[in-house]
Prior knowledge:
By secondary structure, the protein is of the alpha/beta class. It has six helices and 13 strands.
Amino acid sequence: MTQDEMKQAVAKAALEYVESGTIIGIGTGSTANYFIDYLASIKHKIEGTVASSNASTERLKKHGIQVFDLNSVSEISVYVDGADESNRHLHLIKGGGGALTREKIVAAASRKFVCIADESKLVDVLGKFPLPVEVIPMARSYVARELVKLGGQPVLREGFTTDNGNVILDVHNLQIMEPVKLEETLNHITGVVTNGLFARRPADVLLLGTKDGVKKID
Ligand code: 5RP
């Protein structure tokens, strides 16, 4: 099984978590895209979706799936999204696609978070994947200096602006032993919008694509 086939398998398996007549939170990235494509086959079953990026909104609309503004919905039954890394506690690093802030907001507003990923994403310790931090543009240099003080090596994601009009610093060389603590520490740096650690609100279920099929970790 290729990595892409594993992504497709977990995206299909996530359909099991879609409850009839509810609103579904939609992530961003190649695995989330597969989920959107599968969701299209049962779109009549759901009330609609809330998307975590302009890219996912476009893809949903192309399939004729209703997309609501988060402010106009009172409940999202499940949020389905990929990840760049997950540990066994389902603490995640996300934001490889730069959509971390909206992803974190939709995840926070959802009753359940189902993470879908291929087996390469499961790690013992988070941090090999550079941690994305979304930053207000005028604070870029200040925040970078603060990140260096914490032992990281921030690199500006060149030529990239988030859907919120901000920049991303990808922080290399972090060995994240205490994800909840680091998530809070980074979010307290003035100028940081949010960071790609999803530890205070981890996933509830991880569907992991492996060569032996889809494994469920919860
Ligand atoms: C986007 C994300 C994605 O979920 C993450 O980058 C994984 O992407 P892919 O499914 O393409 O491997 O956090 O901001």
